[in-house]
Amino acid sequence: MQKKTVRTGIVGSGFSASFHYEALRRIYGTNVEIVGVHSKDQQQGRVYAEKRGLRFFETLDALLDGVDVIHVCVPPMAHEPAAVAGLKRDKFVICEKPLTGYFGDGSKDFHWDRADKQVALEAAMASVDRMMAAERGSKGRLLYAENWVYAPAVQKEREILEKTGAQILWIHGEEAHSGSHSVDYAYAARCGGGVLIGKGCHPLTAALYLKRVEGRTRDGRPIRPRSVSARTHAITRLPGFRDEGHIRRDYYDIDDFSMMHIEFEDGSIADVFASDIVLGGIHNWLEVCANNHRTVCNINPNTSMQTYNPVEKNFDDIYVVEKIGTKQGWACTSPEEDWFTGYPQEMEAFYRTIAYGEPAESDSHLAADAIATIYTAYLSAQRQGAAVEVPTSSCRA
Ligand SMILES: NC(=O)c1ccc[n+]([C@@H]2O[C@H](COP(=O)([O-])OP(=O)(O)OC[C@H]3O[C@@H](n4cnc5c(N)ncnc54)[C@H](O)[C@@H]3O)[C@@H](O)[C@H]2O)c1
Q1: In whole angstroms, what separates CA 307 from the centre of its chain?
Q2: What are the residues whose beta carbons fall under 8 Å from the beta carbon of 230, sequence distance 6 or more?
Q3: Which burial class, exposed, middle or buried, applies to 43 when counting CB atoms under 10 A from its CB (0-12, 13-18, 19+)?
Q4: pTM exceeding 0.85
Q5: How far apart (Å, rounded) are the C-alpha atoms in residues 202 and 204?
Q6: Residue with CA nearest ligand 1 atom 39
Q7: Is the CB of 76 under 6 A from ligand 1?
Q8: What residues have CB less than 8 Å from 183, skipping those under 6 apart?
Q9: What is the whole-number distance in angstroms between the Cα of residue 341 and the centre of ligand 1?
Q10: What integer pLDDT is reported at residue 394 of this predicted model?
Q11: pLDDT of the residue at 393
């Protein structure tokens, strides 16, 4: 079969725009022509473009003129407008996580601690509905860039579920490290909340995905989340937090620790932890306890490679593993971090959907369930952990 060519544009020129570009370069099933980049920060955008031999576009509209797909690599509060603009022009949209959210009431003194989480849930779901309506009216599709779905360990678990017809009884998982690099991350009004949404979305969506796989394998329909109990905390904002310089602590109004207990329609359960208070490098894992097997997905760190380095400075220009505080001593050095994280597999799969119409594993329906679960969790946390039902709407059936 002759490879199809797809013309691509990148929106945003920061951290995620960089790993999207690297993953695009590794696509083998489709010819990808990267047309250019548009970014609000024009200076950063021009440097990004020049470094990669791309054209910089001053407006999103101008970029949309010449592409079939856009990558939305901008802060969460800018996802909906960019994605809807792309879908309205019949483009495919690959949208970073979280799909969307609630970004405050527009007032200068908006503070997440005081925000009414029922209002947040309703506003976030209204945003989801608008994005899904735009997708329904478009020749393009909304693809959800949740890399955990495409992490090789999670896809291997999908194969096990499909081939053994397993019933998942309990999933538990975590994403944690010592704090995001992003300035925007400190403000709920820019990111839709704190660590529960920012990091919790990853293991949560993988859990939601695997229960979908179980359901579609057995009955042809996904098993969806029914209710959530959650707690959130702001440990580094405690007056008594003793800062030794290892953990980021300049958050304005966000949670830096969260736990969600999810009950699915079939009564099975998942527990998801997310935090910004964990030293020792990134900690991303998911464990599946099923009726016929048990799986531990060590996404990062894992023991595919371990190094011992007696002198810190010897490894000065060697990348070891995400968010590690020191390179001295033993480390779980990752020989191929992007691969274990699922970035290249995710892009290969999305471009097969775009070019050849293959089904997408991480689509807008999965993203919508993740947003519904996350904001229900924030409402539960406001109620000190009481179980709250996850809302459904017709467009998310
Ligand atoms: N999947 C992952 O592992 C992962 C990792 C990091 C970030 N992310 C997600 O990627 C997104 C971006 O995060 P980041 O770390 O790249 O942030 P960043 O701050 O590094 O970059 C954001 C970029 O968006 C641009 N921008 C902001 N508003 C814009 C707008 N309205 N139109 C055009 N450009 C705009 C900025 O100029 C900047 O170039 C977030 O949604 C974040 O959650 C995902």
Answers
A1: 29
A2: 196, 258, 259, 260, 261, 377, 378, 380, 381, 385
A3: exposed
A4: yes
A5: 5
A6: 13
A7: yes
A8: none
A9: 18
A10: 47
A11: 59
Segment 158-186, tens digit of pLDDT: 999 999 999 999 999 999 999 998 899 99
**What would be the CATH architecture of the domain defined by 147-341+361-396?**
2-Layer Sandwich (3.30)
Residue from 44, 52, 74 to probe ligand 1 pocket by mutation (most atoms less than 8 Å from CB): 74
CB 237 within 8 A of CB 255: no
Q: Where in the chain is the domain with CATH 3.40.50.720?
A: 5-145
| DSSP secondary structure code for residue 199 in this structure | T
CA dist., res. 349 & res. 305, Å (int): 27
35 token code pair: 């047309």
Q: Which CATH superfamily is domain 5-145 in?
A: NAD(P)-binding Rossmann-like Domain (3.40.50.720)
192 Cα: distance to centroid of ligand 1 (angstroms): 13
pLDDT greater than 60 at residue 47? yes
For 159, the token pair is 């194969």
Using 50, 70 and 90 to split pLDDT, how confident is the model at 397?
A: very low
Model pLDDT, residue 61: 98
Q: What average pLDDT does this structure show over 150-165?
A: 98
pLDDT digit string, tens, across residues 228-250: 999 999 999 999 999 999 999 99
- Residue 361 gets which letter from DSSP? S
Total residues belonging to the chain: 397
